[in-house]
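Appendix B, record 7
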Amino acid sequence: MAKPKHIKTTVLIIGGGLSGLTLAAVLGAAGVDVVCIDRDPPVSQTALKYDGRTTAISYASHKVLQAAGVWKSLLADCEPILDIRVADGNSPLYLHFASTADGGGAPFGWIIENRLLRQALFKNVRRLKKHVRHLAPAEIKEFIRDNASVGVVLKDGTKITAPLMVGADGRQSATREWLGIAVKKTDYHQTAIVCNVAHALDHENVAVEHFRPAGPFAILPMTRGDKKEYRSSVVWTEHGDDAGRALKLSSADFDKRLQELFGAHLGKVHHVSPPMGYPLGLMHAERYSGDRVALIAEAAHAVHPIAGQGLNLSMRDIAVLAELVVDHLKLGLDIGAPALLKSYESARRSDTVLMAGVTDILNRLFSNNLQTVRAVRGLGLGMVEKLPVLKRYFAKQAMGLSGVSPRIIRGEGL
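Structure tokens (predicted):
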């Protein structure tokens, strides 16, 4: 009987989603040996029915994807956001951010379909096969640890160990559960209905966030489709029961409701991908690390999509952790030591706590129809619109450029 295989690597990543694959590529491109394992086969993850969402990649996050070596291959499928408009119900007041005036001329970000981003990441890790090994599908039988390493035993008996393991396995993280890390959760009792739509008029690269009592309705500019029609991605938030009813509408009735929400500014609209519903909630881990283990992305935190910052928070996790790993390796230091993990957690906690708090407050503030609150919101929107300093601050937040940035976000190599 053959002896079970033992794979030794430098960094073991649990979870091969958008964040896990990006971290693997950033480290692999820097010459670090990585094994990334995932339970789902790649072919299923690029199907539209697996994930119908789009992602807003901030200006800072595109720097991380550049470091991963994947950005150029994404450009054809990414549509830049050059303007942002924020409106509150039927109020005549709104915020308008222009990249030329408020963002220094650079796009605020780009919109891409999740399945296309995954497709590019899978292709990219194959290109980096000298340093990156992607095992999928792979089922974990158990987690293991000794004094100098941590790892897993797969269902087929394969043992994989490394001085550092990274949990990138999502909200239901098995890695986090194994570490015994508790989470704080808030159920918003909201569902994001997502789909792609075609419309008669050009979106002109404008992203629209329209606040309604049930939650935000976002229209995000996309590249043209196969029929060369204008397209946008929709994130339509409804309360639980209303969301269920909307998802059960006939195709014609769903388009009729979409048209009511869009209004006339993009002409006639109709959906071109199946509407899907995603429950919304806030989740935050009490710790981002354990013995020789770091948690990133939704294994550590998940926020409301009201500001489109979910994956962008994860990209900043990746930028910080990759920099710490590479710097420690250059100095011959143990990358699983408590010092690195403490530095990682210290660097990321304040950013994620702030974003979780901001998105939570925004959702509670705007997702209601109380007259007194509406008046305060109107005053706030009017004040920000008239103060260039405040507008530039919020623009930098949207671009992911506030605070101290890791090297790769500054455009420097690891």
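Remarks on this record: Residues 338-366 form the longest helix (29 residues). Residues 6-76+114-185+281-368 form a domain with the FAD/NAD(P)-binding domain fold (CATH 3.50.50.60).
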